[in-house]
Automatic annotation (TrEMBL):
Pfam families: GF_recep_IV (PF14843), P_proprotein (PF01483), Peptidase_S8 (PF00082), S8_pro-domain (PF16470)
Protein's gene: pcsk5b
Signal sequence coordinates: 1-36
Superkingdom classification of source: Eukaryota
Similarity-based family: Belongs to the peptidase S8 family.
A GO biological process held by the record: protein processing
Annotated spans, Disordered: 1740-1763
GO CC terms in record: Golgi membrane; trans-Golgi network
MF GO annotations: serine-type endopeptidase activity
Catalytic site: 177, 218, 392
Protein's recorded name: P/Homo B domain-containing protein
Length: 1823
C-alpha cells in the first residue's frame, strides 16, 4: 500500500484528498522512505515458436526485437522507443496488450538495478629463477619476492605452477564489468573478440567509455591481473599470461536483469571462466541478488556451459566491512554456482573493507591499510597502476589461478574446481579469530573461507583429478511452526535431517553446499543474527547484526548458504539459532516471527574421492589378515566404520574393513587399521598404505632420509637436500616459522634471512646487508651485466641507473623527492640539517599543502599562495568563500572555472591554477595529456628541446618524434635526436624518421628503392645484387683508372655533380646519372623522388600513378593514403574509396550499390540460397561468401576453401585466410615463413631479397665461412673478408704471401684486399674527399683530428681551432675545450682572463659555473655562497641573498624593515616573544606558536617537522593522528558505552544506563528515562527500594531516616511506615532494660547488645554462663544460664535451667518456667528457619542475625572491604519481578542506649548463579 502511495499523486483540491495527503505525509515521516523503482523502456519476453514468431509479435505491438537474450533459449530483448526511457511508473498503453498474446509465456519490464564495482575509492618454495622484462615485474609482490632474493616464493605459489608449464594457454576468461581496453599493449596480444561484447551499447566492441575521471577503469584493471602478456617490456605479467581474455561492458549504463543475463550467458561454449567484481550496494542495509533471468543464466551455464562441464563463475565477496555489511545478504556471492573470493593483506591481516560470511570459499591477495602495498595491473589509456585494491583485485586473481588448473585438466567440472579449491587452500599466515576445523578435517573461517589459494597445489591436483560423483540435491521438508523472536532471546529450532535416504537419486551422505531457506518478519532486520550448527557440531554464522539495516521487510524465502560443512555427513540434528539484539533505534514492543525454514543439502551419496569401481579382492587378501582372532567368523550385517569403503566390513571397527576408504596402518602385532590420514612419522604410498619415515623425519614423502618434509623436535629441514640436520650449514639460514634451513643469497656465505647477509663469499664484500662487488664512489653494481657502471651525473652515490636512484647527491645538487636537482623547485624549500659528524646536509623538502612557495616547514612558513588565498603572518588563508572549481570574479561573486580546472583565476581554459589528479598542468591549462612539444613530469607539462616535436624528457637526446624546427627546416628522428639529414644507410621517411636502408644499400629513398649499392653489389631495378665479374670485366686497376679520368669528384664513386657542386646524394627532384656521375632533373616537374625511368614520390597534392604524378586517380583506382599511390579498386566496383568489396562508391551496369557493396540486380526482400561452400553470403556466387562452415576458411576473394592458397595461412581464430608476410609463399602464421616467392630467399623465417652474409641454396640462405664477409655458391668462395683478414683468390688469409702487399682502401670498399705490387697507382689516387665518419687531414683520411683541429662534418675535413683554443669542437672563440693560455678560464666554451658575474671558478671542472639565481657574485653554487647580491636583495649573515622584506632563519622583519633575532626557543618567528614562533629549535616542539619541550595530553609530537599535532578525537593520548594510534582512549566520548582499558574499545553499557563505568547493571553512572539512580549500588532501578525515596530533582534514590521503614522525603517526619519498636507519628524512645547495653524495646527480652559478662541469647535476653565464678556473692543465682562450653562452635546457645530447691517453692513458678522454655524454643526455631530461607550472599558479608552500625543520615557506617553494591535488584530482563511490598523482606532497625541506630540483616543478595542475564556485548570502536 505504501509503495502505491509513493507512485501515484494523491493531493487534490477536494477535502477528502487533502486529508489523504496529510496521512501520506505523516506516513512518510513515521516510516522508512520508499525506494522508487526505475522502469526502463526495455522488456524481457519469453515467446515459444522461434525468432520469426518473436519478430512478428514485436512488430504487432510497436516493439523492436533486439535479439535473443544471451544464450537463454526463447527469451528475447524487446525495446519500445515511444515509452519513457526511465520512469518511476510501469508502462501502460496499447503495447501492454502484448501479454495477452497466446505465444507470450512471460514478460517483464526491466527495472534498473544498482550494482557497485568492488574496488575501493578515496612444499618449500623453490629457487626464484624466473625473470620477465616487463616494467613492473620486480614490484609484483603477490607473485614473487624482490629480485635480490633468490629463494623466495609467494604463498599463492603462482611461479610454482608456471615452472610446471602452466600459463593458462587455451583457457578463455571474460571480465564482466565496464569494458576493457582491448588495444592496451599488455592485453591486445591475448584479446579474444569472441569472449567480448558491449551489452550497454549492443555492439561487439567492449572498449570503455573515456572521461576525465577515468571512471571506467575497473574492467581493464581486472583483465590485466588475469592475462597481461609477459616479456613485452610493458607494465606487468598476468597470472595466466597465455590465457585468452575478453570483456563484457555491462556496468556503464542501466543494469537490469536482462543486462545481467546477457552478460552471464555470453558464448558459454567458448568462455570458460566469468569473473565479476561487482554486486549490490555494500552499504550494510541492502538485501539483493540475481532476478529470474540472471538465475536462469547461472543455471544454464552450470548445466550446459563448457560442453556440459559447467561454466565457472568467480565473484568478489564485497567491500562493505566498514558499513558492517555481511555478504550473506548478497545473492551473487551467496550462490552455490559462484566461487566467492575474499581478500587478505600482504601481512595476512584482515583488510578493513572485508565482509565475512559462511559462503566465502577461498582467498587471494589484495591490500589492507593505506600503507600496505596494493595490486599492480593495467590501467586505462595504455598505462599501469599500482593502486588496485578491494575484493575487486582478488576475484580476477582467483579466476587466473583457476585458468592454470583448467589448462592442467580441461575436463574439470564446475564442482571439480570447487573441490580442488577446498582441498588445496591453506590457512597459512592468515590471521582470523574464528579458524576452526570441521568434522571432515578442513580448516575454515568466515573471513577467508578455506584459506589462501595455492596455484601449484591446484595444478598438481588437477593433473591427477578424477571427476567427483554426480551431485545430489536433497530438499528437506520445511519447518512451518511459527516462533516468536523476542528481544534479547534466542529462538532455537532443531531439524532432524535424513539426507533423503528414501530417494536414491537425491540421497546425500557427504555434504558440499548447505542452503537454508528462511522467512522472517521483524521490525528491524539489522538486529538479527542467525547461526546454523551441523550434526557434526560445526557452527556457521549465516547472518550477523547489521548496524545500518533499519528495514522492516525481514527475509522472505531468502537463501543463506554455508560451505563450512564441506565433507561432513548430512544426516542428524541441524540446529538453527536466531538471536535478536535490540538496538536503541527501534521499538521493542513489536517482536519478530520465524515463519518458516527449510534445508537444501547438496552433495554426494558416495565419498567424492573414493574410487567408484573397486574389485572385490581386499587389501587383507593381498597382504595378510587383519586379525588372527576369529571373533567375526559369522557374516556381519551391522554398520561399518566410517573409514571403510563401499565394499563393506566384517565387523564394526576400523580394523574390520574389507577395504579402506582412505589409508591403512600396519601395527607390530601384524594387525591393520583403516585411518583417514597417516599419523606423524608415516607417509602414504601409492597402494594406500601408511609406511614409516626415516628416524629424523616428522613427516615425509618416502622412507629415505632425503625425503623428509618436516623434522622431529631438535632438527631442521635442509632446503634442497630435504634432510633433517641439527644445525644449518654454511649458505643456509634457519627460518624459525617453518623450521627450515633455507638457502642464502648466492653471494652470501652466511646470512640471517634470505636478504640479510652476515658473511660473504670470496671476491664479494658486505654492503648494507648484501654481498656485492665493491664499486668505486659514483658507480653502482649492475647485477645483470655483473659490472660496476657509472651513476647519473647528479649522483655522488647511487643504487642504480637514473636520476631517481641517487642515494646521495653530487656537489652542487640537492635531494628533492628522490631526485637530485641543482635548485629547489617551486613548492619546495631548502632544508639544512646537521649530521652526527657536524656536516650540514641540505635537501629540498615539500612545502605545506597550503603554500604555493615557502621558506620552511609547516603551514606558517608560506612565502606565496595560490590564487584565491591571501598570505597572512606566513600562512595562506582562504580569501573568499569560493569552492574548488570556482573563482572570485571582479564583481565580488563566485563563478565556475572551466570544466578542466580544479582551481582557477578566471573562466577561460588557460586560467587554471591547479588541476585534478587526472590532468596535467600546462602553462595555465589542464590537459588530459601534454601537448606536442611538451613532456610530463610530476603532473606538469614541460617544454621539450627546441629540436623535438615530441619527447620523454628534457635535452635533445630524448626526442620521440620530429617535425620542422623554428626556422622551417625539416628534421628527422635518428637515435632519439632530431637531425637535419639522415646518415648514410638511412632514408627520410614520410613520418620524419631516419629509416634504415637494406644492408647492401648505401643510399636509398625507400627500403626497396636503392640509389647506390655497397661494394661488391650493383644496382638493378632499384635493388642491389652481388657483383659478378668475368675475367677482365672489372678489376681494381681499371676502376681506379676510370675514376682518375673524371673531374675532381671522381674519387668518391657515390658522389655526383650538380652544376659545379659535388653531392653525396642527389637532392630532391633530381636523380643520379650513372654514366657521367651527374645529377639530372626529374622529367616530371611534380616529382620529388625519381630515377631515370619513373617517379616514386610526388609533391603535396599529387599521387603516383603508373610512375607519373597525377592530381587524382583514374576511375577504378583509389588513393592509398600511406604510399600516396593509386591502387586498383575491387573488381566489383566502378569507383571506390578503398580496396574492399564494400568500399565501392559506384558500380558497373546491372549492379546496385548497397552499403558500399555492388550487388547484382535481383528481387528485393527475397532470400536466395548461398553457394554450397558458404555458410553465410551476400550473393549467390561461390565468391560471395561472408563466412564459412567449420573446416573451411574465408579468402580475400570471398571464397571458402579447406586449404588456404599460396601466400596465406589459415587463422583459426578469425576463420579467414590471412596474408603471410611480404615475399612469403607459404607460412605457418604471420610471423613464421616456410617458403619464399621466386627471387627471394628464406632467412630466419623471413623472406629477403639478398642473403645477409651468405648465399642462397634451394631458396634458403646459407651462411658464409666465419672469415668471409660475403660469399657465393659455397661458404668458402669469399667475395670479401672480415676486418682482420685479406682477400686472396676468393679466400681470406691472415696476411699476404710473398710478392703481395696489403693496402686498405676504406674510401671505396671498406674492405681489405691483397694487391699485386706491380699495380700502378696514379697521383689522383690521393684523396680529396673522404667517406662518412672520416675527415681529410694532410692528404689523408683520418677518423679523428689531431689536437688543435676539430672535425667539420660540413667540409668533411679537419679545421684548425680558434687561436685562443688548444683544443676545440668548433671554429669560433666560444668552442674551446682547453685554452691555449693556461692562466685563462673557460666559460661557455670561451677562454677569458677571469669569470664574469654572476659566475664563479670551479676548480674541479676548471671552468666558470653559474651562481645561484639569487646571487650577483658568489664562491659556489649554493644559495648560501653569495658574495654580493642583485638590486632589491641584500646579503644576510648566512650568505643568502634575500629580498629586503625577507629575513633569515631565527630572525624576523621588524616595523622598521630590519631583521631582528627571534626568541632563543624559536627556529623561525614572526616577532620577538616566545609565543610568536613559527618553528622551533630541537628539542622543542611548536604548539600554538609557542615552543614546548613536551606535547600536552591530546597531542603527539611530529619529530620530522617538530610540531605538536592534535590526536584523533577518540584518543585521550596517542602516538599518531590515526584512531588506531591511541595510547589511551578518551572514554568521555563513549556515548552510552564505557571504555574498556584492556581492549581499548568503547563497550556497550547495560540498557538501563545512559553512562556507566562497566558492563553490568551495577556499574551505572546515570540512567535512561523512566529509571531512578541508586548511587550507593550503582544501579538504575524502575523504583527505589524500601528505606529509600525518590528525589524528584535529580531522579535519584535517597535513604529515609533510620527510623522509617518507608518514606516520601528526608527526615524523621517523612516516614510512611515504621520499623518495630517505633510507633506513632514520631519515634517514641525509652530506656532499655538494665540487663541490656542496647535494645530494640523496653523489656529484658528486647536486648540487642549485652554487657561484657553476659551472653545474648536467641530470645533477646542477656544471660550469664553457667558456673561463672566471677559473679558477686551477693548476686542472686539466676534461674537460667547459658552452657557456654557446650555452645562453643555452634550457632545456638544451650539453655540450662538451675533451680534452688527449698521448702518455700511453688508450683506456679514451675509452670511459668515451662511456658517460657517452650516459647523460647519456638521463637528460636522460627528465627533460625526464617534466617536460612531468607539468607543471601552480601558484600560485605553479614551473618544472619548480626548487626551493622548505621550513620546518622541513614547510610551504612564505613567498613573495610565494603562493596558499593546493595542487596536490591530490579530485574529488567528475563526474570519475574519480586513482591516489593513484603514486610518480611525488609531490614530491621534498632537503636541502642547511646542513640546509635543498628540494622539487623535478615537476608543477603541474590546468589551468584541467580544474577540477571547480561546484555549482548555489542561494542563499537574508533579503529
Amino acid at each position: 500500500m505504501l509503495l502505491k502511495l509513493c507512485q501515484f499523486p494523491l493531493c487534490g483540491t477536494n477535502k477528502g484528498r487533502s486529508s489523504l495527503c496529510v496521512l501520506v505525509l505523516w506516513l512518510g515521516i513515521a516510516s522508512p522512505p520508499c525506494k522508487a523503482r526505475i522502469y526502463t523502456n526495455h522488456w524481457a519476453v519469453r515467446i515459444a515458436g522461434g525468432a520469426e514468431v518473436a519478430e512478428r509479435i514485436a512488430d504487432r505491438y510497436g516493439y523492436r526485437n533486439m535479439g535473443q537474450i544471451g544464450d537463454l533459449k526463447d527469451h528475447y530483448h524487446f525495446y519500445h522507443s515511444r515509452t519513457i526511457k526511465r520512469s518511476t511508473l510501469s508502462s501502460r498503453g496499447r503495447h501492454s496488450f502484448i501479454s495477452m498474446e497466446p505465444k507470450v509465456e512471460w514478460i517483464q519490464q526491466q527495472v534498473v538495478k544498482r550494482r557497485i564495482k568492488r574496488d575501493y575509492k578515496p612444499a618449500p618454495p623453490a629457487q626464484n629463477n624466473i625473470f620477465y622484462n616487463d616494467a613492473k615485474w620486480s614490484s609484483m609482490w603477490y607473485i614473487h619476492c624482490n629480485d635480490d632474493i633468490d629463494n623466495c616464493q609467494s604463498d599463492m605459489n603462482i611461479m610454482g605452477a608456471w615452472k610446471r608449464g602452466y600459463t593458462g594457454k587455451d583457457v578463455v576468461v571474460t571480465i564482466l564489468d565496464d569494458g576493457i581496453e582491448r588495444n592496451h599493449p599488455d592485453l591486445f596480444q591475448n584479446y579474444d573478440p569472441q569472449a567480448s561484447y558491449d551489452v550497454n551499447s549492443n555492439d561487439v566492441d567492449p572498449m570503455p567509455r573515456y572521461d576525465a575521471t577515468n571512471e571506467n577503469k575497473h574492467g581493464t584493471r581486472c583483465a590485466g591481473e588475469v592475462a597481461a602478456a609477459a616479456n613485452n617490456s610493458h607494465c606487468i605479467v598476468g597470472i595466466a599470461y597465455n590465457a585468452r581474455i575478453g570483456g563484457v561492458r555491462m556496468l556503464d549504463g542501466d543494469v537490469t536483469d536482462m543486462v545481467e543475463a546477457r552478460s552471464l550467458s555470453l558464448h558459454p561454449q567458448h568462455i570458460d571462466i566469468y569473473s565479476a567484481s561487482w554486486g549490490p550496494d555494500d552499504d550494510g542495509k541492502t538485501v539483493d541478488g540475481p532476478a529470474s533471468l540472471a538465475r536462469q543464466a547461472f543455471e544454464n551455464g552450470i548445466r550446459t556451459g563448457r560442453k556440459g562441464r559447467g561454466s565457472i563463475f568467480v565473484w568478489a565477496s564485497g567491500n562493505g566491512g566498514r558499513s558492517r555489511d555481511h555478504c550473506s545478504c548478497d545473492g551473487y556471492t551467496n550462490s552455490i554456482y559462484t566461487i566467492s573470493i575474499s581478500s587478505t593483506a600482504e601481512s595476512g591481516h584482515k583488510p578493513w573493507y572485508l565482509e565475512e560470511c559462511s559462503s566465502t570459499l577461498t582467498t587471494t591477495y589484495s591490500s589492507g591499510e593505506n600503507y600496505d602495498r596494493k595490486i599492480i595491473t593495467t590501467d586505462l589509456r595504455q598505462r599501469c597502476t599500482d593502486s588496485h585494491t578491494g575484493t575487486s583485485a582478488s576475484a580476477p586473481m582467483a579466476a587466473a589461478i583457476i585458468a592454470l588448473a583448467l589448462e592442467a585438466n580441461s575436463l574439470l567440472t564446475w564442482r571439480d574446481v570447487q573441490h580442488i579449491i577446498v582441498k588445496t587452500s591453506r590457512a597459512g599466515h592468515l590471521s582470523a579469530p574464528d579458524w576452526k576445523t570441521n568434522a571432515a578435517g578442513y580448516n575454515v573461517s568466515h573471513l577467508y573461507g578455506f584459506g589462501l589459494m595455492d596455484a601449484e597445489a591446484m595444478v598438481k591436483e588437477a593433473e591427477r583429478w578424477k571427476q567427483v560423483p554426480a551431485q545430489h540435491v536433497c530438499v528437506e521438508s520445511a519447518d512451518r511452526q511459527i516462533r516468536t523472536i523476542r528481544p534479547e532471546h534466542v529462538v532455537r529450532s532443531v531439524y532432524k535431517a535424513t539426507g533423503c535416504t528414501d530417494n536414491p537419486n537425491h540421497h546425500v551422505i557427504y555434504l558440499e553446499h548447505v542452503v537454508v531457506r528462511i522467512t522472517i518478519t521483524h521490525p528491524r532486520r539489522g538486529d538479527l543474527s542467525i547461526n546454523l550448527t551441523s550434526p557434526s557440531g560445526t557452527k556457521s554464522q549465516l547472518l550477523a547484526n547489521r548496524l545500518f539495516d533499519h528495514s522492516m521487510e525481514g527475509f522472505k524465502n531468502w537463501e543463506f548458504m554455508t560451505t563450512h560443512c564441506w565433507g561432513e555427513k548430512a544426516a542428524g540434528d541441524w540446529i538453527l539459532e536466531i538471536y535478536d539484539s535490540p538496538s536503541q533505534l527501534r521499538s521493542q514492543k513489536v517482536p519478530g516471527k520465524l515463519k518458516e525454514w527449510s534445508l537444501v543439502l547438496y552433495g554426494t551419496s558416495v565419498h567424492p574421492y573414493s574410487s567408484l569401481h573397486i574389485e572385490k579382492p581386499r587389501f587383507t587378501d593381498m597382504l595378510m589378515p587383519l586379525s588372527t582372532d576369529e571373533e567375526f567368523t559369522e557374516e556381519y550385517n551391522g554398520p561399518c566404520d566410517s573409514e571403510c569403503n563401499e565394499n563393506g566390513c566384517e565387523g564394526p571397527g576400523p580394523h574390520n574393513c574389507i577395504n579402506c576408504l582412505h589409508y591403512f596402518l600396519k601395527f607390530k602385532n601384524n594387525t591393520r587399521m583403516c585411518v583417514s590420514e597417516c599419523p606423524s612419522g608415516f607417509f602414504r604410498d601409492d597402494r594406500k598404505r601408511c609406511k614409516k619415515c626415516s628416524s629424523l623425519c616428522e613427516t615425509c614423502v618416502g622412507s629415505r632420509s632425503d625425503q623428509c618434509t618436516t623434522c622431529r623436535s631438535g632438527f631442521h629441514l635442509n632446503e634442497g637436500s630435504n634432510t633433517c640436520v641439527a644445525t644449518c650449514p654454511d649458505g643456509f639460514y634457519l627460518d624459525n616459522d617453518s623450521n627450515i634451513c633455507r638457502r642464502c643469497h648466492e653471494n652470501c656465505k652466511k646470512c640471517t634471512t634470505s636478504n640479510i647477509c652476515t658473511e660473504c663469499k670470496p671476491g664479494m664484500s658486505l654492503q648494507a646487508n648484501k654481498c656485492q662487488m665493491t664499486c668505486d664512489p659514483g658507480t653502482y653494481y649492475n647485477g645483470h651485466r655483473r659490472t660496476c657502471e657509472p651513476c647519473h651525473r647528479a649522483c655522488a652515490t647511487c643504487a642504480g641507473t637514473g636520476i631517481e636512484a641517487c642515494t646521495k647527491c653530487a656537489d652542487g645538487y640537492l635531494l628533492e623527492d628522490w631526485r637530485c636537482v641543482s635548485t629547489c623547485s617551486s613548492g619546495y624549500y631548502l632544508s639544512e640539517q646537521t649530521a652526527d659528524n657536524g656536516q650540514a646536509q641540505r635537501s629540498c623538502k615539500k612545502c605545506d599543502n597550503s603554500c604555493y612557495e615557502c621558506l620552511g616547514p609547516g603551514e606558517s612558513n608560506c612565502s606565496s599562495c595560490v590564487s584565491g588565498y591571501n598570505l597572512e603572518a606566513g600562512a595562506c588563508v582562504v580569501s573568499t568563500i569560493c569552492k574548488d572549481g570556482e573563482y572570485w570574479s571582479k564583481y565580488g561573486m563566485c563563478h565556475l572555472c572551466h570544466a578542466s580546472c580544479q582551481q582557477c583565476k578566471g573562466p577561460e581554459r588557460e586560467e587554471c591554477t591547479t588541476c585534478p589528479p587526472t590532468r596535467f598542468f600546462d602553462d595555465g591549462r589542464c590537459d588530459i595529456r601534454c601537448q606536442a612539444g611538451h613532456y610530463a613530469m610530476g603532473r606538469q607539462c614541460h617544454l621539450c628541446h627546441h629540436t623535438c616535436h615530441e619527447c620523454t624528457d628534457e635535452g635533445p637526446e630524448n626526442c620521440t618524434s620530429c617535425d620542422t624546427d623554428k626556422f622551417g627546416v625539416s628534421l628527422y628522428l635518428f637515435h632519439n635526436q632530431c637531425r637535419e639529414a639522415c646518415p648514410e644507410g638511412f632514408y627520410h621517411s614520410r613520418w620524419k624518421r631516419c629509416e634504415a636502408c637494406l644492408s647492401e644499400c648505401n643510399i636509398c629513398t625507400a627500403v626497396d628503392r636503392c640509389l647506390y649499392c655497397s661494394p661488391g653489389h650493383k644496382l638493378r631495378n632499384g635493388l642491389c645484387i652481388p657483383l659478378e665479374c668475368s675475367t677482365g670485366d672489372f678489376t681494381l686497376h681499371s676502376f681506379l683508372s676510370s675514376i682518375c679520368s673524371v673531374s675532381s669528384c671522381t674519387l668518391s664513386p657515390i658522389d655526383a655533380r650538380l652544376d659545379s657542386d659535388c653531392h653525396h646524394s642527389c637532392p630532391d627532384r633530381t636523380y643520379n646519372h650513372n654514366d657521367n656521375m651527374t645529377c639530372a632533373a626529374c622529367e616530371d616537374k611534380h616529382c620529388e623522388v625519381c630515377d631515370q625511368s619513373q617517379c616514386y614520390w610526388c609533391e603535396e597534392g599529387f599521387v603516383v600513378f603508373g610512375g607519373e604524378c597525377v592530381d587524382q586517380c583514374e576511375e577504378g583506382f583509389f588513393v592509398d593514403e600511406e604510399a600516396l599511390e593509386c591502387e586498383p579498386c575491387h573488381s566489383d566496383c566502378r569507383s571506390c574509396g578503398g580496396p574492399r568489396y564494400d568500399d565501392c562508391d559506384s558500380c558497373e551496369d546491372d549492379f546496385t550499390l548497397k552499403k558500399g557493396e555492388c550487388l547484382e540486380g535481383r528481387e528485393r526482400n527475397k532470400c536466395e540460397l548461398c553457394s554450397s561452400t558458404c555458410k553465410t553470403c551476400y550473393g549467390a556466387g561461390k565468391d560471395d561468401c561472408s563466412s564459412c562452415y567449420s573446416g573451411r576458411f574465408l579468402t580475400a576473394q570471398q571464397t571458402c576453401v579447406s586449404r588456404c592458397p599460396s601466400g596465406t595461412f589459415a587463422n583459426q581464430t578469425s576463420v579467414q585466410c590471412q596474408d603471410c608476410m611480404t615475399g612469403c609463399a607459404m607460412c605457418q602464421n604471420s610471423q613464421q615463413c616456410q617458403e619464399c616467392r621466386s627471387g627471394m630467399y628464406l632467412h630466419h623465417d623471413v623472406c629477403v631479397l639478398q642473403c645477409p652474409r651468405g648465399f642462397p641454396l634451394g631458396g634458403v640462405c646459407q651462411p658464409c665461412a666465419p672469415d668471409c664477409g660475403s660469399c657465393e655458391e659455397k661458404p668458402t668462395y669469399c667475395l670479401s673478408c672480415e676486418v682482420q683478414y685479406f682477400l686472396l683468390d676468393h679466400s681470406c688469409v691472415g696476411h699476404c704471401p710473398l710478392g703481395y702487399f696489403a693496402v686498405t682502401i676504406t674510401n671505396y670498399f671498406l674492405k681489405q684486399h691483397c694487391l699485386l705490387p706491380t699495380l700502378c697507382l696514379p697521383f689522383c689516387f690521393l684523396p680529396t674527399e673522404c667517406a662518412e665518419h672520416y675527415f681529410l687531414y694532410d692528404d689523408r683520411c683520418v677518423d679523428d683530428c689531431p689536437e688543435g683541429f676539430f672535425p667539420s662534418e660540413k667540409q668533411q675535413e679537419c679545421v684548425r681551432c680558434h687561436t685562443d683554443c688548444a683544443s676545440c669542437d668548433g671554429p669560433d672563440d666560444d668552442d674551446c675545450i682547453v685554452c691555449s693560455n693556461k692562466k685563462a678560464v673557460r666559460y661557455n666554451g670561451e677562454c677569458l682572463p677571469e669569470c664574469p658575474p654572476p659566475t664563479y671558478y670551479d676548480k674541479i671542472t676548471r671552468e666558470c659555473r653559474d651562481c645561484d639565481r639569487s646571487c650577483l657574485t658568489c664562491s659556489g653554487s649554493e644559495p648560501s655562497s653569495c658574495l654580493s647580491c642583485e638590486t632589491n636583495r641584500r646579503k644576510e649573515a648566512s650568505g643568502h641573498c634575500v629580498w629586503y622584506h625577507q629575513c633569515p632563519l631565527s630572525s624576523y622583519l621588524d616595523p622598521k624593515g630590519e631583521c631582528q633575532q627571534c626568541h632563543k626557543l624559536c627556529h623561525r618567528c614572526s616577532g620577538p616573544s616566545k609565543d610568536q614562533c613559527l618553528s622551533c629549535n630541537a628539542p622543542y616542539f611548536l604548539l600554538n606558536n609557542t615552543c614546548v619541550q613536551q606535547c600536552p595530553l591530546g597531542y603527539y609530537s611530529e619529530d620530522k617537522e617538530r610540531v605538536c599535532e592534535r590526536c584523533h578525537f577518540s584518543c585521550e593520548s596517542c602516538t599518531g593522528h590515526h584512531s588506531v594510534q591511541c595510547s589511551k582512549l578518551a572514554f568521555s566520548l563513549c556515548s552510552s558505552h564505557f571504555g574498556n582499558t584492556t581492549s581499548m574499545l568503547c563497550e556497550r553499557c547495560d540498557p538501563s544506563c545512559t553512562a556507566c563505568w562497566g558492563p553490568t547493571n551495577q556499574n551505572c553512572l546515570s540512567c535512561r528515562q523512566d529509571y531512578v539512580y541508586l548511587s550507593q549500588w550503582g544501579q538504575c532501578l524502575k523504583s527505589c527500594p524500601p528505606s529509600y525515596y525518590t528525589n524528584s530533582h535529580d531522579t535519584t534514590c535517597q535513604r529515609c531516616h533510620p527510623t522509617c521503614k518507608t518514606c516520601h522525603d528526608q527526615g524523621a517526619l517523612s516516614c510512611q511506615s515504621c520499623y518495630d519498636g517505633f510507633t506513632g507519628e514520631e519515634p517514641d524512645c525509652t530506656a532499655c532494660d538494665p540487663s541490656c547495653v542496647d535494645c530494640r524495646g523496653p523489656s529484658m527480652w528486647n536486648c540487642t547488645v549485652c554487657p561484657a559478662s553476659l551472653i545474648l541469647y536467641d530470645d533477646g535476653r542477656c544471660l550469664t554462663c553457667c558456673g561463672d565464678e566471677t559473679r558477686h556473692a551477693d548476686d542472686p543465682t539466676p534461674r537460667e544460664c547459658c552452657d557456654c562450653k557446650k555452645s562453643i562452635g555452634t550457632p545456638r546457645h544451650t539453655l540450662v535451667h538451675t533451680w534452688t530447691i527449698n521448702s518455700q517453692g511453688s508450683a506456679k513458678l514451675f509452670i511459668t518456667a515451662c511456658v517460657l522454655l517452650i516459647l523460647s524454643v519456638g521463637v528460636g526455631i522460627f528465627f533460625f528457619l526464617n534466617a536460612r530461607s531468607k539468607a543471601r550472599p552480601f558484600k560485605p558479608k553479614n551473618t544472619s542475625g548480626t548487626y551493622q552500625k548505621l550513620e546518622p543520615n541513614g547510610g551504612l557506617a564505613p567498613q573495610p572491604d565494603t562493596s558499593p553494591f546493595g542487596e536490591y535488584s530490579d530485574r529488567i530482563i528475563g526474570c519475574e519481578g519480586n513482591d516489593e511490598g513484603d514486610d518480611e523482606d525488609n531490614d530491621i532497625v534498632y537503636m541502642g542506649q547511646d542513640g546509635t541506630v543498628y540494622r539487623k540483616f535478615k537476608y543477603g543478595l541474590l546468589d551468584d548463579d541467580e544474577m540477571e542475564m547480561e546484555y549482548d556485548d555489542e561494542i563499537y570502536s574508533y579503529k
